[in-house]
Write a structure and sequence with these properties.
heterodimer, A: 425 residues, alpha/beta, six-stranded mixed beta sheet, four-stranded parallel beta sheet, 13 helices, 23 strands, B: 136 residues, mainly alpha, 7 helices, globular
């Protein structure tokens, strides 16, 4: 009988034993490299994963955790609602993300163990990280609208996260007969895609107009007193869909008192509407995993350092995209993509001694009001006054020539092709 | 950074096929700007000529590569039409066009806004990067 003591085990440990030992196998596979783990495969997560993998040329081990095998973009989903694109054209795979050198794990991330620097997967497996990028997008605050719930959203879709909800909304929209009443409850600030609800209203109106509706109407019940590109949308609605869209601010409706998914009734302080189609877009907050990990503040979103996109609560963790508090930037795919590039440069500098550069950000949001009538708003941003601060900005003007608006639409289509190539390869 | 000979007049700049292509694809024909374009490009060319008289410091391509990530959200060689591919563009043309946007001599709100915060050394760094880089 041979007794393997600690001493003779070490003595026995020749090269072959070392190589066979599970303890050393990972290093032999190159996993001794510094590790970036990314949670969420949208515009923020996809961009940071791909940029770090691509630009570090293998020096950093990059893992992306995303439960879905395909990603349907929320950006341009209104263009799908309006019938200008099909669903497939806004849905992307992770094949090219993998080709960029990113390991993609299609599982839900259950939790972040910040003390041990590990991400816990649904399977129980733990993925260690040196740096973590958290980009889970938003969660819907269902109870911010009285009477609304996740169950109610199957009848009254929010369609503010892409997928089944968006398809449901489109099915319902396309089935409407003349004389329909669409009621949208718009979200309070801050929310994903500031002009999005109003572009969606425009797309509803376009579909109804195209179907020849004369009596249908769209009522927007807004908790805000003003909204993004308001003058442009109002001008466009009057021009293209006269009498169809009625926007109400809180003074006009007095507040949303109750929505009833069973009857389609929406009660405000001053009136009651029977909606043929209700689109309820509640308040929003950072994705659950970010909140559970203690990365959010009382607002429900995650404060970041504007110099580098790091969480204010953990220097090893970056929060990118809709889940973060982006200062003057809007919550948009463009913003997420821009923030991810700043984070990627910082991660490469810290983990692979790459040269560091000052943070700078930019954003543009295009909105389609009617065929070939597209408006835009945008800006550039840099760290300042403790936040991401706007440096320069522009917005489309009322009464612009038709060819300007047509060119804007073409530009938005090219932008979409560009950004999805940037995010998904 | 290599600098080509600058065009002496607005018509020379306008007639250059590369500048023409940029102006065509990026023009949003804003009233006023459009009308005043030949005069506007004339002063742009003048401004450029003045700027080019200063000796150009060696362009920082690595900085350009970082700055270029901003451009890549829209400008990729996979698309065509409204947003042109800028990979492989000569540094001279790149510098002229971006400075023309910065001076609001070329019409496009996005490009004017992006260009408005770029300093000369940043434009040179970007120009040098795009000239030697063929694809994203």
């Amino acid at each position: 009988m041979t007794i393997v003591t600690r001493r003779n085990f070490v003595a026995l440990s020749g090269a072959s034993l070392l190589a066979a030992s599970p303890l050393f196998a990972p290093r032999a596979l190159g996993q001794g490299r510094p590790k970036l783990v990314v949670i969420g495969g949208g515009p923020g997560g996809g961009t940071v994963a791909r940029y770090v993998a691509k630009d570090s040329a293998g020096a950093i081990d990059v893992t992306l955790i995303e439960p879905q095998k395909t990603y349907t973009t929320c950006f341009f989903s209104n263009i799908y609602v309006g019938g200008f694109r099909d669903y497939k054209s806004i849905t992307h795979t992770y094949d090219k993300v993998r080709k960029s050198g990113v390991r993609v794990i299609h599982q839900a991330a259950l939790a972040i163990d910040r003390d041990r620097k590990q991400v816990v997967l649904a399977s129980g497996r733990r993925i260690p990280y040196d740096r973590l990028a958290v980009a889970p997008g938003i969660d819907i605050k269902f109870d911010s609208v009285p009477g609304y719930s996740e169950a109610a959203s199957r009848t009254m879709p929010h369609a503010w996260k892409p997928g089944v909800q968006t398809r449901l909304l489109v099915r319902r929209l396309n089935a409407l007969d003349d004389g329909a009443t669409i009621v949208m409850v718009a979200p309070p600030n801050p929310y994903r895609c500031p002009p999005g609800p109003y572009e969606r209203v425009s797309m509803f109106a376009h579909v109804l107009k195209k179907k020849g509706h004369k009596k249908s109407r769209i009522v927007v019940l807004d908790p805000k007193t003003t909204f993004s590109k308001q003058a442009l949308f109002v001008e466009g609605w009057e021009k293209h869909y006269p009498g169809m869209v009625e926007w109400q601010d809180p003074q006009m409706h007095g507040g949303i008192k109750h929505v009833d998914a069973r009857t389609g009734e929406i009660k405000t302080d001053l009136a009651s509407y029977k909606a043929t189609l209700a689109n309820i877009i509640p308040a929003q907050m950072a994705g659950k995993i970010a909140r559970d990990a203690g990365l959010a503040d009382q607002s429900g979103f995650c404060p970041i350092d504007p110099e580098n996109m790091k969480s204010k609560f953990d220097a090893n963790v970056f929060v990118i995209g809709d889940a973060c508090i982006p200062g003057d930037m809007p919550k948009s795919a463009f913003s997420a993509n821009s923030q991810a590039k700043v984070a990627a440069a910082v991660i490469r500098a810290e983990l692979a001694n790459a040269r560091a550069f000052p943070a700078r950000y930019s954003n543009t949001c295009w909105s389609l009001i009617a065929p070939d009538d597209d408006v835009k708003v945008g800006g550039t941003y840099e760290p300042g006054d403790g936040k991401i601060k706007q440096v320069t900005a522009f917005v489309s003007q009322k009464g612009e020539a038709a060819d300007v608006r047509r060119q804007n639409y073409k530009e938005s289509v090219d932008w979409y092709a560009g950004i999805v190539a940037d995010v998904f390869g | 950074m290599a600098r080509g000979k600058l065009p002496a007049s607005a018509s020379a700049l306008k007639s250059r096929p590369d500048v023409k292509a940029m102006a065509h694809s990026l023009s949003t024909a804003q009233a006023g700007v459009q009308k005043g374009r030949s005069a506007a490009l004339g002063s742009a060319a003048l401004a450029l000529a003045i700027g080019a008289a200063e000796p150009a410091a060696a362009a920082d391509i690595e900085f350009g590569r970082y700055l270029a990530t901003e451009c890549l959200t829209c400008h990729r060689n996979t698309v065509g039409g409204a947003i042109p591919n800028i990979f492989g563009m000569s540094a001279t043309t790149f510098g002229e066009v971006v400075r023309a946007y910065r001076a609001q001599r070329l019409p496009n709100q996005v490009m004017q806004t992006i260009a408005s915060r770029l300093k000369d050394d940043e434009i040179d760094a970007l120009a040098a990067y795009f000239e030697v880089t063929k694809r994203p």
